[in-house]
Amino acid sequence: PVSLLAMPSYKLNYFDARGLGEVSRQLFILSGTPYEDNRIPKDQWPALKEKYGFGTLPVLEVDGKQIPQSLAIARYLAKEFGFYGANAFEAAWVDALADQAKDFLSEMRPYFVIAMGMAEGDKDKAKAEIALPAIKKHFDLFEKAAKDNGSNGHFVGSKLSYVDILISEFVFSIDSFMPGSFDAFPTVLAVRAKVTSIPAIKEWIEKRPKTVT
Amino acid sequence: SMLRYKLIYFPIRGRGEVARQLFYLAGVPFKDDRITISEWSSLKAKTPFGQLPVLEVDGHQLAQSFAIFRYLAQEFGFAGDSPLEALWVDVTADQHKEYENKIKPALRFQGSEEEKEQLMRNVAEPARDKYFPLLEKIAEEHGSSGHFVGASLTWVDLLIAEHASILLKQFPGFLDRYPTVLAIVDAILSTPKLKEWLEKRPDTAF
């Protein structure tokens, strides 16, 4: 445990959503590190955009200095707080799965915008042509990774890492749009079960703002 | 004697080149396994994500290009000199990847002159003008002595310099509005050990 005097001040700026900011929130909570959870309403974003040097969210402020890019932020916090694998090779595997998960999210985006009514389109067609193939393609890999790791409730090694949290959150979001989407991936679901059974995370999930994504 | 490291990729620079450069700069021997398309079709199912590059370390496989680059960079000392520097290397690399994904349709496009011009105006130039001011800002705030982040060579220097050299071959003058970036790219490509590699590496179009 670090003395409170030595700890930097942390502020996480993101939308009122889970998305790509949630993994960092959970890292703060798991490590017992105080942080400011600044949620910017979507309608205020255009006016505030200039204030954030890179024009995107999330932005982490460490002692007032702004840092963009969700996965870079998550990796930095995971390293600081000890959720980044037990050695360099495990860390690389955590990163590899996280990059793959981000690719997955990008492939799902066209489905999400239709499903959330933000773009014109046939929701069922989007599900069949975009969502289901993307889920199969990436979650076959995640299922294999979890199995090859020994089906111990983690994607890599024997301790919680940030990619366990990241993929668990994506599962939660997508399952809320398409229940049962991950029934074919029981080892992935076991990782999510393990993450959400941690008391601090369980408590957070119960009390956090309820958002669509 | 068995080599510890094997890099499996196609016989191009693409998403494998930064790893090759890191090995060369570190003076670490590795098996540069350049495979054919037919070899790939039988290997694909045996890789973690069905993609290349794959790095083998003592027989253990690792996938995803940036995870590979970051791993090698950390082993060999090209990942920044502090956790904050490593963070800014990662930020810059992810920012660069988003830009590269946007500009990709405009590179190596094989259509009509009119379509090429449209892609240039509607895709390439906006992607460039969104990203390169941010890159200049990063270099100004976090880089020195001819580097994008920190005061010594990092894997993101190699990533950006490699991209710039391909880009400018196809579109000379494309980055004229960003002289700071051009100067840093020049400095990186002039690093003696890297120059050695650039001169002796297999010559491929990209």
TrEMBL record, chain A:
PROSITE patterns: GST_CTER, GST_NTER. It comes from the Eukaryota. The keyword Chloroplast does not apply. It is an enzyme of class 2 (transferase). GO terms for molecular function: glutathione transferase activity. CDD domains: GST_C_Sigma_like (cd03192), GST_N_Sigma_like (cd03039). It holds the Pfam family GST_N_3. Belongs to the GST superfamily. Sigma family. This is glutathione transferase. Signal peptide: none annotated. Its EC number is 2.5.1.18. Residues 87-213 form the GST C-terminal domain. Residues 8-85 form the GST N-terminal domain. GO terms for biological process: glutathione metabolic process. SUPFAM superfamilies: GST C-terminal domain-like, Thioredoxin-like. Keywords: Transferase. InterPro entries: Glutathione-S-Trfase_C-like (IPR010987), Glutathione-S-Trfase_C_sf (IPR036282), Glutathione_S-Trfase (IPR040079), Glutathione_S-Trfase_N (IPR004045), GST_C (IPR004046), GST_superfamily (IPR050213), Thioredoxin-like_sf (IPR036249). It catalyses: RX + glutathione = an S-substituted glutathione + a halide anion + H(+).
TrEMBL record, chain B:
InterPro entries: Glutathione-S-Trfase_C-like, Glutathione-S-Trfase_C_sf, Glutathione_S-Trfase, Glutathione_S-Trfase_N, GST_C, GST_superfamily, Thioredoxin-like_sf. The keyword Transferase applies. It comes from the Eukaryota. One of its GO terms (molecular function) is glutathione transferase activity. It catalyses: RX + glutathione = an S-substituted glutathione + a halide anion + H(+). Keywords: Transferase. One of its GO terms (cellular component) is cytoplasm. One of its GO terms (biological process) is glutathione metabolic process. Residues 3-80 form the GST N-terminal domain. CDD domains: GST_C_Sigma_like, GST_N_Sigma_like. Residues 82-206 form the GST C-terminal domain. This is glutathione transferase. Pfam families: GST_C_3 (PF14497), GST_N (PF02798). Its EC number is 2.5.1.18. Belongs to the GST superfamily. Sigma family. Signal peptide: none annotated. Coiled coil: none annotated.
